[in-house]
Design a protein that fits this description.
- The complex is a heterotrimer of chains A (531), B (258) and C (227).
- With 531 residues, chain A is an alpha/beta fold.
- Helices cover 45% and strands 10% of the residues of chain A.
- In chain A, helix 3 packs across helix 12 and helix 16 packs parallel to helix 18.
- Chain A starts with 32 loop residues before the first helix and ends in a 6-residue tail after the last helix.
- The N terminus and C terminus of chain A are likely disordered.
- In chain B, strand 7, helix 13 and strand 8 form a beta-alpha-beta unit.
- Chain B contains 14 helices and eight strands.
- Chain B starts with a strand and ends in an 8-residue tail after the last helix.
- Chain B is an alpha/beta fold and 258 residues long.
- In chain B, the strands form two sheets. Chain B has a four-stranded parallel β-sheet with strand order 2-1-3-4, sandwiched between helices. A four-stranded parallel β-sheet of chain B has the order 6-5-7-8, sandwiched between helices.
- Chain C has 227 residues and is an alpha/beta fold.
- Chain C has a single domain, classed as Rossmann fold, CATH 3.40.50.
- Chain C contains six helices and twelve strands.
- In chain C, the strands form three sheets. In chain C, strands 1-12-7-4-2-3 form a six-stranded parallel β-sheet, with helices on both faces. In chain C, strands 8-5-6-9 form a four-stranded mixed β-sheet. In chain C, strands 10-11 form a two-stranded antiparallel sheet.
- In chain C, a hairpin with a 2-residue loop joins strand 10 and strand 11.
- The longest helix of chain C has 18 residues.
- Chains A and B meet through helix 1, helix 15, helix 17, helix 18 and helix 19 of A and helix 1, helix 2, helix 3, helix 4 and helix 9 of B.
- Strand 9 of chain A pairs antiparallel with strand 9 of chain C, so a sheet runs across the interface.
Amino acid sequence: MGREPVSTDLGMPRRRVNPEASERGTLRGDLGFPQAARVALANGQLRRNLGHATATIRAKRAAVVAELDDWEALRDAGSALKADVMSRLPELLEQLEANVTARGGVVHWARDADEANAVITSIIQGVGARDGRPVDQVVKVKSMATQETGLNEALAAQGIAAVETDLAELIVQLADDKPSHILVPAIHRNRAEIRQIFLEHMAGVDPGLTDEPRVLAMAARAHLRRTFLSARVAISGANFGVAETGTLAVVESEGNGRMCLTLPDTLITLMGIEKLVPTWRDLEVFLQLLPRSSTGERMNPYTSLWTGVTPGDGPQEFHLVLLDNGRTAALADQVGRSALHCIRCSACLNVCPVYERVGGHAYGSVYPGPIGAVLTPQLAGMHGHPGVGPGAGPGDPVDTLPYASSLCGACFDACPVKIDIPSLLVHLRAQHVDGERARHRLPTAERAAMAAAAWVMATPGRFATAEKGLAAGRLVGRGGRISSLPPPLSAWTSARDLPVPPRETFRQWWSRRPSPAGTPSPFVRGAPSDE
Amino acid sequence: MRIAVFATCLADALFPRAAQATVLLLERLGHEVVFPADQTCCGQMHVNTGYQREALPVVGHHVDVFERALAPVADGGLGADVIVAPSGSCVGSVRHQHAMVASSAGDEPLAGRAAQVAAKTYELSELLVDVLGVTDVGASYPHRVTYHPTCHSLRLLRVGDKPLRLLRSVAGIDLVELPGADQCCGFGGTFALKNADTSTAMLADKMRAVQATSAEVLTAGDSSCLMHIGGGLSRLRVGTRTVHLAEILAGEGWDANL
Amino acid sequence: MTSSSRRGAPGPTGNGAKDEILRRIRRATTEADAGTPGGAVPRGYHLQGEHSPGSPELIELLRDRLLDYRAAVHRCSPEEVPATVASALADRQARRVVVPAGLDPAWLAGWPGDAVPDRPAAPLTVTDLDGMDGVVTGCAVAIADTGTLVLDASADQGRRVITLVPDYHLVVVRAEQVVQSVPEGLARMDPDRPLTMISGPSATSDIELNRVEGVHGPRTLVVVLVG
């Protein structure tokens, strides 16, 4: 990413090379999900860390959710509020803009990632010009939106270093890595690795640093404190934007949010247009849903709420950048738009058996896991999607995301705003196939098999005939099992046996059963009615 | 009651015992069972793989067949009161996907008819407990058994503890709880082929849980999941066999006079 | 005129982006749905707790929650506040603390140390604050269910920075300020003021999910519950 600090180990410069952090988009990986998953599944440490982390957070979430006897009512309210927002978005966005502006903030609108990055860069450069001293470093509170736009890289290209201040984001940044989880982005790292990362990349770190989590956290505190106390510009995201009052909210745990939102003179907040709530009181729903769903706490340590600029307290210059970047494309899909209800709690990641085993990198997007599988294709543009763009061409990794699920439904149960992710996945799969069909690009073997199967299953006579053909399978097996089949069914038999087909099918059995007395009806006796 | 059996394409073709046991169980309980012989498949494989357009005729055919099954004999129907299937996923598809597929294709009349059929379609444990009001089906099955609640039964149909209540009433059964029971087995239909590596990783954990129970038998209400888990257990020669819930409820020796 | 444009920073981007985005939204929601029910939002959740504000059950619940968060909690009567505050500060071996200009001076009357007021006319610098042993404030409202203290930068709580930079924060919470539920708490919070909701000392679980307290912000939180 343009930075190549040297290590003094053995006096030899060491260039950081991390193959996972190669040049690629923020919503689109290099590999399709099945290929990326295969790589991830072989990473024992990732699986151990992820398995432990997700099991721990699952248990905590379950415990605090069980405490509330009105949890389902809160979910219903949260879901309805978000649906309301999506149906009144223009009105609510203009209301937010008016209220922020009335309180001394400046509102900007960005159609896409590049525009957002350009606006933010120009604001920062403006601060430097006004002060007569360029701004070459800004502090950041963790923000998924800024990851989505690739802000840090864009700023770096303009000579502005964006220092991540969330511990996990700091770890990821120092290691030139990519986050693997929305909430605990460094979950794929263990303490020994983190210690190593700090020793190699954290300026002024104590060489006697141990790998005890407390010691590591205190090293981060010391390292960042100097930066906080001297920062002139901070960049944040926002968990919620209240249209009625122009208030923004940042929900956090470590206190770096408070630092960034209070100490620097200029604050820039990037927020997706879908993160609105209509009125102040509506926060009562989300401030209960979010902490319990994300970190499994009754309430997170710090939540900061501010409206515009308060003279004498905190930043005296505030900019809000409202981001589209594909959200309007998702909105155009009447079914798909419910993915925009997401409040970024990551509960779905923590209950997903697929995510638990492969981690976030396999999805190739800053939004991984179940929600990522339905949001990323809509934001990034998937073949067949009615919204923006034709996607990246044939073999687009994004197209594999809707299939990265066994449709088990655990995500739907866990989602605090009741996004029906399994139905969205099925919907996007249909869009993908329809899109490929229109471009005459369906994988021939799969399409042929599906068309043949549908043809057989649409008519009972053909079905019965096809069943008879299965009898040949009895020749393939041994000891009652079939252990090897040609592709594509080899994908099955590589790990599983299949039973040898039975001597007779159910309907063959039924047709030779004696009729119950007095009921000679051909329907009852099972004769096919056509063909 | 007159009960129409929706055998499901998978049971019909590969696991007929699940459907046969369902028939014999219901007959033993004193009900009349009919089999609309022109049935084929619910179409979920197509719907779940994105081939909704191809699924439409399959859905239409299912609705035709079972609408006729429910129609009075005088109108050329079978006069069935309800429809039962030994499969949580197939009933899930009928209940939650058929009307959607029809509506998406712009066929609102079919969507309405599909909803009517769905309203009378039950998974086996739902039928026994909710409709027939029975939890003790009079079965005996003296074996160590562990039960896997399949994802569609658990989360889509929300059958809750009905299967367990049915199993607990079986004479002689040694029912042992499956660790991590509510974790997906990794089948997921074509997921098992398109994401075979991840599917296998999930299967490995499910098999480990099964082995921890030292059960002779793993049971579930879906032949598809049993085929997947059973296929893995067979490959690894674990020794635990898979038996559909219907076969246990039909009782030891149910297949004596097939 | 916004404060930003007065100071010469870039104003809002040209209206092109805003108009385009609003146009896209209107086209998306018109095309895709004729009358999606915005509808009434079902509010079947609890709008208030079973205990009324300031009741003994809530004080006890708040205390339990704060202890769960590993904050130190002292209960006292109104007359005992100065002594309790003084005793807590002595335990800390604090010599200089910053106080909001509008803090009740009686609260620190029993303490021999240096209570430095942060006045709007002469605000302390970040360096000053970094050198303080702690900060003492009141609060705006406390939510017992979640163990949350809310600061709203009123005169007895001060600018946000004074409760952020020092490593020790002592908050005096009066019984009548304690409500049970989040909805009740929000109803007493003024969205026009900068608000900070505090539910325990800062923490991270980013290293192998081991919870470590006190990353940034005050590592020690002491609560004096009055009444």
